[in-house]
Write the structure tokens for this entry.
Amino acid sequence: MDYIKAGKDEGAKIETGGERLGKEGYFIQPTVFTNVDEKMKIMQEEIFGPVVAIGKFKDVEDVLTKAHDTFYGLAASVHTKNLNTAIEVSNRLQAGSVWVNCHNFLSHQLPFGGFKQSGIGRELGYLFSSDSLLMGLESMRLPIIQISRLFISILPLTLLSNLDVVAWV
């Protein structure tokens, strides 16, 4: 509830939610903030809960500047109808996972982690090498539905051609 209070105190507008849910446990209503500024606590820190702050931007450069103006970079979502914009923005975002037109769609076979102060390295350890990843992926005969931009850069095309299903989501 501290983040919701901070958002209210700093001038953000609650469109829906913002209250405790039920009488037991640590549950809050799904909450949507608007009228936010990038310097607000709710825009600068990672809120793990059903809370979203919706900010405005002018163009791709503006959204990237605002997205990078934080100490964190665990995950991001890009929502667009334009495939070129999706690819450009997702490649330039400083986030461990970037989803396009969805959010939190995970493939548990792939390691994940964040940028900056979001997490420590990648899941599966600091010494996880791209070679062991490639060997593990080649031996998998499961369809891979999501490939994060981390793996787009390290998977050779020969490996991609050996996979059963590859789709950019």
Remarks:
- The CA atoms of residues 116 and 143 lie 31 Å apart.
- The mean pLDDT is 76.
